[in-house]
Amino acid sequence: MMAYFERFVLDLPADVVDACSHPGPVDDDVAEALLRDDVSAELDRIDPEDLRVELAEYGAWDDEELADHEQNRARIVWIAACDIHENIESDDD
Q1: Which of 12, 21, 54, 63 could form a disulfide with 85 if both were Cys (CB 3.0 to 4.6 A apart)?
Q2: Secondary structure, 3-state, the chain
Q3: Is 10 exposed, middle or buried (0-12, 13-18, 19+ CB in 10 A)?
Q4: What is the pLDDT of residues 33-78, one digit of tens each?
Q5: What is the pLDDT of residue 88?
Q6: Does any domain span residue 80?
């Protein structure tokens, strides 16, 4: 399932999208997704600077927070999962 960003595309498995886009805290679900080889391989294709700049445009994190690449990987999985989930729901309407 594809999430499209300005600088890259992220392909996440459907079960990861479901696990990381539900109401309530998803930190543990995202952490588990990051341990998966398929998700990790997708994230490894993204240049760390491109990821940092992409996330900076959201305006939700400061420069110090965005310096943490591992947290950036978690942030983009969460954002991608939510974007994909929302697109699926809007397609169903």
Answers
A1: 21
A2: CEEECCCCEEECCHHHHHHCCCCCCCHHHHHHHHCCHHHHHHHHCCCHHHHHHHHHCCCCCCHHHHCCHHHHHHHHHHHHHHHHHHHHHHHHC
A3: buried
A4: 999 999 999 999 999 999 999 999 999 999 999 999 999 999 999 9
A5: 85
A6: yes
Q: Note whether residue 19 is domain-resident.
A: no
Which whole-number Å values give the CA distances from 34 to 11, 37, 71, 91, in the listed order?
Answer: 13, 8, 10, 27
With bands split at pLDDT 50, 70 and 90, how would you rate the model's confidence at 89? low
| C-alpha span between 79 and 84 (Å, rounded) | 9
| Amino acid (one-letter) located at 81 | A
pTM, two decimals, is 0.93
Segments forming the whole domain that contains residue 45: 2-14+24-92
Residues paired with 74 in a beta bridge: none
